[in-house]
C-alpha cells in the first residue's frame, strides 16, 4: 500500500517525508492555487523532496490543449504523472500521452464505468473520489472495492488510487478493499499516528522511570 500526500504545501511535504512514510504526492489546481506559487516551480520543488510519483494536473479543456500541456508538464520532472480529468477529451489525452510513454492519473472518477474506460485508454492510475461520493450519500469505499475487484478480474495494470480521503477510516477501508494507493491530506497523518493508549502508556513509563531513578539516589 502506497501513501501519497494530497497537498502542494512544501512545508508539509518536508515534514511528512521526514517520517519515512510518503511514496508520492498528488496535487490539483485547487491545492496549487491555495499555495499562491508558480505551478511549475512548486512541482519541481516537490520533486527535490520526494522520490516518487508526483501528480500534476492539466488545466486546459480540449484534448489538443491537454495533450500539449501534458507533454510540457511531463518535462518538468522525471517522476511526473500527468493528471487528466475523466472526460471524453481526457480519454483521448490519456491515449495520446500513454502512447508517448507519459504516465497519467485520471482524476474525478465517480463510477466503475469511468474507471474501466480510463484503464482501457491506458491510464497508469485512476483516482476515484471516496469523500465526494460519500458526500452525495453513496458509498465511496464500495466504489473502490468494485473497481479493485473488476481490475483484478480482467487483469488491468492500472493502479487504483483512493482519493478525496477525509478521515483515517477512509485510509483503513481503502487498504481493506485492496486499493493500491491512498492519497491523504497532511493533517490526517497526525490523526493516524496518535493513539490515546500510546500517549498514556508513554506517560506511565516516564513516571515509573523517574520514580525508579529517584529511588536509586
Ligand atoms: C487528489 O488527487 C484529489 O484531487 C483530491 O484527493 C480531492 O480531494 P477533495 O475531495 O478533498 O477536494
DSSP helix fraction: 40-55%
Averaged pLDDT, please?
98
Q: Which term fits the overall shape?
A: globular
Task: Please count the beta strands (DSSP E, at least 2 residues each).
Answer: 8
Radius of gyration: 20 Å
Number of helices: 11
| Ligands bound, unique | erythose-4-phosphate
Major sheet: 8 strands, parallel, barrel
Low-confidence stretches: none
Order of helices and strands: EHEHHEHEHEHEHHEHEHH
Distance between the termini: 50 Å
Q: What structural class do the secondary elements suggest?
A: alpha/beta
Strand residues, percent? 15-25%
Biggest β-sheet: strands ordered side by side in the sheet: 1-2-3-4-5-6-7-8
State the main characteristics.
17% strand; alpha/beta; 217 residues; globular
Task: Outline the secondary-structure elements.
Blueprint: E1 2-6, H1 10-17, E2 24-26, H2 29-35, H3 39-49, E3 54-57, H4 63-74, E4 80-85, H5 88-99, E5 104-109, H6 112-121, E6 125-128, H7 130-135, H8 140-154, E7 159-162, H9 168-176, E8 181-184, H10 186-193, H11 196-216
Parallel strand pairs: 1-2, 1-8, 2-3, 3-4, 4-5, 5-6, 6-7, 7-8
Helix pairs in contact: 1-3, 4-5, 6-8
Walkthrough of the structure:
The chain is of the alpha/beta class and 217 residues long. It is 55% helix and 17% strand. It has helices at 10-17, 29-35, 39-49, 63-74, 88-99, 112-121, 130-135, 140-154, 168-176, 186-193, 196-216; strands at residues 2-6, 24-26, 54-57, 80-85, 104-109, 125-128, 159-162, 181-184. Strand 1, helix 1 (10-17) and strand 2 (24-26) form a beta-alpha-beta unit. Helix 4 (63-74) packs across helix 5 (88-99) and helix 6 (112-121) packs across helix 8 (140-154). The site of erythose-4-phosphate (E4P) has 11 residues, from helix 7.
Amino acid at each position: 500500500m502506497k501513501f501519497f500526500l494530497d497537498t502542494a504545501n512544501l512545508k508539509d511535504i518536508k515534514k511528512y517525508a521526514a517520517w519515512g512514510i510518503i511514496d508520492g504526492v498528488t496535487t490539483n489546481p485547487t491545492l496549487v492555487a491555495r499555495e499562491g506559487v508558480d505551478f511549475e516551480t512548486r512541482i519541481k520543488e516537490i520533486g527535490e523532496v520526494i522520490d516518487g510519483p508526483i501528480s500534476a494536473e492539466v488545466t486546459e479543456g480540449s484534448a489538443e490543449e491537454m495533450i500539449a500541456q501534458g507533454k510540457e508538464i511531463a518535462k518538468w520532472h522525471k517522476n511526473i504523472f500527468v493528471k487528466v480529468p475523466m472526460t471524453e477529451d481526457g480519454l483521448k489525452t490519456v491515449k495520446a500521452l500513454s502512447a508517448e510513454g507519459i504516465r497519467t492519473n485520471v482524476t474525478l472518477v465517480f463510477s466503475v464505468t469511468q474507471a474501466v474506460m480510463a484503464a482501457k485508454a491506458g491510464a497508469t492510475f485512476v483516482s476515484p473520489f471516496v469523500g465526494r461520493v460519500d458526500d452525495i450519500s453513496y458509498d465511496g469505499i464500495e466504489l473502490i472495492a468494485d473497481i479493485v475487484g473488476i481490475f483484478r478480474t480482467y487483469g488491468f495494470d492500472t493502479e487504483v488510487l483512493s482519493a478525496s480521503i477525509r478521515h483515517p477510516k477512509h485510509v483503513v477501508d481503502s487498504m481493506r478493499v485492496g486499493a493500491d494507493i491512498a492519497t491523504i491530506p497532511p493533517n490526517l497523518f497526525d490523526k493516524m499516528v496518535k493513539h490515546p493508549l500510546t500517549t498514556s502508556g508513554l506517560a506511565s513509563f516516564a513516571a515509573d522511570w523517574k520514580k525508579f531513578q529517584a529511588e536509586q539516589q
